[in-house]
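Crash report, auto-generated. Payload:
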Amino acid sequence: MPIFTCENLTKRYGPVLALDHVNLNIEPGRIVGLLGPNGSGKSTMIKLANGLLTPSEGRILIDGKAPGVETKSIVSYLPERTYLADWMSVKQLLKFFQDMYEDFDRDRALAMLNHLNIAETQRIKQMSKGTREKVQLILVMSRRAKLYLLDEPIGGVDPAARDYILNTIIGNYEPNAAVIISTHLIADVEQMLDEVIFINGGHIIRHTPVDEIREQMGMSVDALFREEFKCF
Amino acid sequence: MFLKLVKHESHAAARAMLPLLGGLLAMALLARLSIWMMETVDSSVTNIIGVFLIGIFYLGCGAMVVTTMILMMVRFSKSVHGDEGYLTHTLPVGVHSILLSRLLVCFLAVVISFAAVYVGIQIATLGVDSVESLGISIKAALRSAGVETSSMLLKIFCIAGMSILATILMIYAAISIGHSFATGKTGKSVLFFFVLYFAQQIITSIVMVAVLTAEFATTGSAEGLVTTSSNSLSSTMFWFSIGQAAIFGAVYYFLTWYMTKKRLNLA
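Recovered output after restart:
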């Protein structure tokens, strides 16, 4: 059974159509790149999957269920902005995640924090933007979730931090889980992807295995993206 | 899971409240010290300082409840409709749990702030004859008017509790409506607070007039609404106050729930 399904999924913001009758299935165990230019509907789709938005038409299913309390316990979500309260310390955040998510692996989180020399006593407000994003990613990737939804995980960080973030994702996701990474920085992520979804203007214009792009089309994902989204 | 939310929400509230409570206690002690100095030292300087510190303490008492409400509202706004909402709304809990946990903790914070003001005044006026005799005089006056003090206090506490809950929910509703707009969220939250507040005042006034008219038509006097021979707060007035707070509270809760569940608009 697909872990992520969209059936005629449509989302309107007033007169603006963000997603237009999208149909999509993603199987467990795949790392999928949700790729598209700014305003293409990537974040809207991820927010719908998290129950942060309600579909205008159609439906979205996570492991066969509409977004709700049950699906939130199996989805680990990294939004594109920092959502951690800045007064909290790392220790308080670990306790919070441990209390709220049954699948949270504290030891895994501690190992990653130690690797970065981030002390448990450190507060979010004392950290740089990059460190905050790393802490957030560590918390998200320390869950043994069935679906990871990562919205622009490398959007606002330097290239060195990008490598750390991508290695953390590859090294920590559950093998049977699906990972959906929304980004427009394709060259950085394409080596880790099994499939790509090109989205533009609220339409899925391509959903292809990465190997197919490389073997049959003889192109990298980045090159194909540049060709398909060429600005005239 | 609800209790875990309450626990974490309490922790967040305590972090903001403890300095306030500590500050009020310190001001109460300073006010008491000032009163003692004014009673024992005959100096215009100590009198001026004393009056100043007592004034600061009473200002602090007023600010305590208002500041608590503001802190709790900021907390609600940030954690439910701000960036922290991305975490709050992806926790495996329902919207009712999210709202009720915040409502409960905010209510307790306001009650604690009122209690702190009461304790602060008790500390500041400890052993002051004029204040103690004022309290005794009020009790005696109420008793001679046939008022059962304990019964009246219980009713007042019930009405105050319901009114606090309804007021918190009105502010939650205003914040939730204000944050459904793309821009000017804080300004629109304030605007909708006044819209809801004035709507409530108008509706309450209309219903109140209707109740008074009905009471007058039945008994030939509306006096029964305000006083009875044994109790200064009649059952009609009590249930009217409780009922209107409960109805408005329920409406505001539904508005907050609807806007949070169906019209959530995180930036």
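Post-recovery validation: Residues 5 and 60 of chain A are 6 Å apart (CA to CA).
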